[in-house]
Amino acid sequence: MSFSWPVKKLDDLCNIARGGSPRPIKQYLTEEPDGVNWIKISDATASSKYIFETKQKIKPEGIKRSRMVHEGDFILSNSMSFGRPYIMRTSGCIHDGWLVLGEISADLNQDFLYLFLGSPNAYKQFDERAAGSTVRNLNIDLVRSVTVPIPPLAEQKRIVAILDEAFAGIDAAIANTEKNLANARELFESYLNSVFGERSNGWEVKAVREFANHCLGKMLDKQKNKGTLRPYLRNQNVQWFSVDTSDVLEMKIEEHEEPRYRVQKGDLLVCEGGYPGRAAIWTESEPVFFQKALHRVRCEETIFNEWLLYFLYWADLSGELKQYFTGAGIQHFTGKSLGRLQVPLPPKVDAEYWVLKFGELHEKVQGVEMLYQQKLNALVELKQSLLQKAFSGELKIRSAEKETEEAVA
Questions:
Q1: DSSP code of residue 263
Q2: Domain range enclosing 285
Q3: Most buried among 165, 168, 216, 405, by the most CB within 10 A?
Q4: DSSP of 54-76
Q5: Do 219 and 140 belong to one domain?
Q6: CA dihedral 26, 31, 33, 35 (to 10 degrees)
């Protein structure tokens, strides 16, 4: 922090208090006109900096069991979004998952305080003060002890103006990159729809069991399983079009079970639960095994493993796959359901052509996704860098403009 700026504890700059919850909350919820706004985490996520309205209200008699907050107050989530600030643009009651900062000192510009509370400087203090606790929540004493630099109000406004302009450019760049990614995905998905949704009349339609062998993996039972520890895949490992091997566990497999539960290069893996129907091709030469939450599919003609993968993706997008799921709450894509899934099958030579085209388009989507993530990471880092400089007394307008221009180019 700049040595020329005084530093004060938040406790000396505002009143800090925890929310409260009238219980049982269901008895206090109301849709009557005199209901009081009931502010939840879900009300904040979509509103970014401000909270303008709430989805639920409580009866007026619930106020005494909660805490009232007013327009202009700051509230902090003490758990789910570690220390993230929001500014109230309405009044209402907060539960005990919130802290409120009210009666804020006239020495602090509202936007300056907002930016500070979201800065690495503040987060570092939150993080250090929460260190060692089992549940890393923000408590009142922790927040009260956080120190804030207090430059003159004119300097606070200058910092806010510089950051607002830089952040507007960064946010526009993020939105543009997201649009490019959405366009690439839309092109890929519309191409799939043109093939699977408007399929040729000459194609056969067959159930999976008619052109492929499929089976579920081995039941995980540490008490009963015997044999040698082998790496195995779970439904968490199978993402759309790729298998995440960063977190592969091991289970005991007996020698006579290996052929049944081994995954070979080119096999299609389909999620039975978790995200039913999500699928990927195993592309590695190293053998791996699979657990009961996954199906292994081997088509008679290997090109149809990939064809089926793209069909599953399209059927998931279009909603056609849902009719094959079982379970009212947690849904499953059982072996029986997978076996009766109706799939349009072109001649082999046509399948090879379409799979090649699908792959080319999907590669383009992956390339845009990679660029998007790199760009997003760079822009987020720039935001944090500018915030760090702002509250260390090192923010220069020329430097901020140059860094922003280079990052958004």
A1: E
A2: 204-345
A3: 216
A4: -SEEE-GGGGGGSEEE-TT-EEE
A5: no
A6: 20
